[in-house]
Design a protein that fits this description.
Length: 614
């Protein structure tokens, strides 16, 4: 767990020094860091500076150690800090003493990337058993971030960081932690491992855009053209760390994602495409660069997809970032669904392995995040839920689809958020069936009966009761009063996003098939209260987790209170900086409210914004 907190911050400093070029300064080392045998991440202030009476380096400040820049005098009361523990992965490699030792590759950050004459290498080095160890070590970086649990606890298969309905952190392919431990600024960036399939490489033509790619399509470089994108990624994503299920000053997984992406071109290009697309929302001059990296991400993905030795978690990570990019820019639904289809194809080929996977794995975690996006794409009869239907057949994901789940077997808000999205997906399927019956001149399937709709209402209500019961044992949920400027704990934040999703499912169902016995105003009120609590959280004011677009869109459409509608439209207006899809949601809602009667959402999309995923 030490690595998961310290390494990403070290990486950020090293990457920022690299981005400064030759003007970066070399920092002195404090006595405390020397004793701990770690690289010091700060320089002492000038003695006598009243503004900084007690200089502390970044390491000591973060870990709470006494930071000293002078050797303690004899007889002085001084408690030495604990020395740094070695990484578990390194202990295993050192203790094994086997003859098949991994090559010691080093992750480096330099001003110019050197290209070597080394031949193609496989994506993962070493035997299958070694690869499994590396995956386990990588999972250690993400395990334990449960709602209301300590970092040392054992995580389950769906115990993931929650990001509400905003931008999730990027799942990462397996990379040896030893590579991250030996950072320096003097050695060249290692060549990206190339796929072993020569046929796959020959099918991918070279690209001559803003990024540099060798003729085989397997190499790239960090140059002035994309250095701005990397800097933007580090600056912007640092705010997204607040949506993670841990303290805001702890490990930033977005920065870790960038570092690991240096070893996998599809993910690296996807990250650059995301960054350029984000910049293009305010500066159109980045649009061409964004399109170029989107193309490059697709080409490198197809190249590595054909490689026999390529790891599934790396491919799915790259797909996840690309899907999030399409979602953020309110892009083509066809592109969105084609990426989901590619993920489903990869999962389908590994179905047997996943069926036997009883332990948490990075692949399963990435699949869950992709499934959330796939489920949301089904709203308003847009998507098909291809990936969700596929994982329903895999035993490892069976708990997600259990009608009445034994709640003792599930932990973490993201697991329950996906269950809520699956329920909203069932409402969307009901919506699709109803429209098909109304459009067909002859009845071609069994008509939808009220008892079936009532059963879906009951299922959602049951899920709400179970969620309230589970969380009521861990926090106070008895009050409806929304305090101002209160920083929500990760536990409280997770409770609100799941509760909002469940009640918005009821609102969505009422818009599709209203029942007189259902209390619509109650669910509208709960969604608004959840959004208000999150909006009042100052720690989330600068992150996309400050808004729940899909939930408040449905409430804005169904409420009759003009004050509520005005507030929701203002929230969506403020949240447009998080993505074009938020802007389109506001424009769509305004158009729907101007239209007399109750127009169809998908039809209004076709007329106003084009189809997109809210």
């Amino acid at each position: 767990m030490y690595l998961s907190r310290v390494i990403p911050h070290r990486l950020e400093i090293l990457i920022r020094l690299f981005l400064l070029g030759e003007n970066g300064l070399v920092m002195a080392s404090c006595y405390t860091c020397k004793q701990r045998k770690v690289r010091c991440e700060g320089a002492p202030q000038v003695p006598g500076n009243d503004s900084h009476p007690e200089p502390r380096c970044v390491n000591c400040q973060r870990l709470g150690f006494q930071c000293r820049w002078q050797v303690p005098t004899a007889g002085e009361d001084y408690t030495p800090p604990p020395k740094r523990r070695r990484a578990p992965g390194r202990r295993r490699v050192v203790s094994s003493h086997n003859d098949h030792e991994l090559p010691q590759q080093q992750l480096t950050v330099t001003r110019d990337v050197q290209q070597s004459d080394a031949g193609p290498a496989t994506l993962m080095t070493g035997s299958d058993s070694t690869t499994g160890q590396l995956l386990d070590e990588t999972l250690d970086l993400f395990g334990g971030f449960l709602f209301g649990t300590d970092f040392g606890s054992v995580s389950g298969g769906f115990d993931l960081n929650s990001a509400g309905e905003g931008l999730d952190f990027v799942p990462l392919p397996a990379v040896d932690n030893d590579m991250l431990q030996d950072l320096n600024l003097s050695t060249p960036l290692p060549d990206w491992p190339a796929p072993s399939s020569a046929d796959a490489l020959s099918k991918t033509p070279p690209y001559s855009g803003s990024d540099t790619v060798d003729p085989d399509g397997s190499h790239s470089s960090i140059d002035p053209n994309n250095r701005r994108l990397i800097q933007h990624y580090l600056d912007v994503m640092k705010g997204y760390a607040k949506v993670d299920d841990h303290a805001k000053d702890d490990n930033n997984l977005f920065i870790s994602a960038f570092t690991r992406s240096l070893y996998f071109p599809p993910l690296f290009h996807a990250i650059l495409a995301f960054s350029a697309s984000h910049l293009a929302m305010e500066d159109e001059s980045y649009a061409n660069q964004a399109n170029a990296f989107v193309t490059l991400a697709g080409r490198s993905f197809e190249t590595f997809r054909c490689a026999e030795t390529c790891q599934v978690d790396g491919l799915l990570s790259a797909l996840f970032v690309r899907v999030k990019t399409v979602h953020m820019v309110g892009g083509s639904v066809d592109t969105f669904l084609s990426l989901i289809s590619a993920a489903a194809d990869i999962v389908s080929t590994k179905r047997d392995e996943l069926a036997l996977d009883t332990e948490p794995s990075l692949t399963r975690r990435i699949i869950v995040r992709l499934a959330i996006l796939d489920a949301r794409a089904t709203y308003h009869r847009i998507g098909r839920g291809q990936l969700v239907h596929l994982i329903q057949e895999i035993p490892a994901f069976s708990a997600l689809f259990a009608r009445h789940l034994a709640w003792s077997t599930s932990t973490g808000a993201l697991f329950n958020l996906l269950r809520a999205d699956i329920l909203r997906m069932k409402v969307a399927e009901l919506d699709t069936r109803l429209h098909a019956q109304m459009e067909n001149e002859f009845v071609t399937e069994t008509p939808i009966r009220t008892i079936e709709v009532k059963s879906l209402y009951d299922d959602i209500e049951y899920e709400i009761d179970q969620w309230n019961g589970q969380m009521g044992q861990r926090m106070d949920i008895s009050t409806d009063i929304v305090p101002g400027d209160e920083v929500l704990s990760s536990l409280a934040f997770g409770y609100n996003i799941v509760l909002s999703a469940l009640h918005s499912a009821l609102v969505y169902l009422y818009s599709v098939y209203p029942l007189p016995s259902f209390n619509l105003e109650r669910s509208i009120s709960v969604v608004l209260q959840c959004q208000l609590r999150i909006s009042n959280d100052p720690s989330r004011a600068t992150s996309p987790s400050s808004i729940l677009p899909s939930s408040i869109f449905m409430v804005g459409l169904m409420t009759n209170d003009p004050v509520h509608r005005h507030w929701i439209l203002q929230l969506l207006k403020t949240g447009e900086r998080w993505g074009v899809y938020v802007k389109k949601a506001r424009q769509l809602l305004e158009a729907m409210l101007r239209e007399p009667g109750q127009p169809d959402i998908r039809d209004m999309m076709d007329r106003v914004t084009g189809r997109f995923v809210i």
